[in-house]
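Appendix B: complex inputs.
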Amino acid sequence: MPRGPNGLQVEGRARVQRIVSGVTASLALIDAAIADGADAILVHHGLFWRGQDGRLVGWLGERVRRLMTHGINLFAYHLPLDAHPELGNNAQLGVRLGLMADAHFGPQDLGFAAPAGINTSLAALCAQAQDALGGRAPLVLPGDGRALARIGWCTGGAQGYFEAAIAAGVDAFVTGEVSEPQAHLARETGVAFLACGHHATECFGAPAVAAHVAERFGLVHRFIEIANPA
Ligand SMILES: [Zn+2]
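Resulting structure:
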């Protein structure tokens, strides 16, 4: 999972009354926030990542220029927003899948695991995931068709957590993206794998935090969805 600075990434005006949340600080989201009259944007995917060369040119320069020209603050929370036990992406997806985490796995314990609850079969889990994610059907690697006793999940690009999920004893793993190796692992271990969309699985954390902040400080909050098929 890439790392970046958490919190205020671009400083805008000092007084904040309207806050827009979204998944990614894309130009489309920034423009929508400008149109909304926002003073601040809160996202999961910010602008700066470890390993970038740091030059504000091209598309990155344009995003920063747009924010600074309009005095908009940009707040970004990456791994802390995956990990937060109540407002984070994983916790919020768990609520929508009927899952209450009782264990964690993988790098930095970002993987969540829980008893399967209502999702006792792969078909039931797929239906629940599709329902929770706005009708989007997951890409499914079915495993060996076993009944589900425990389910692991980690939102976004967490396909690399599949092995740790298997080692943690889950019968199915839910994440956003899939890569080639997971197909073989699902076949050879019998553990099912669901890729439900990186964007789709990470739509819940940022608005949950922004709504919490808005309520606490009496701000106006609006989540703006910028559709993303990936
Ligand atoms: Zn992500």
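DSSP finds nine helices and eleven strands in the chain.
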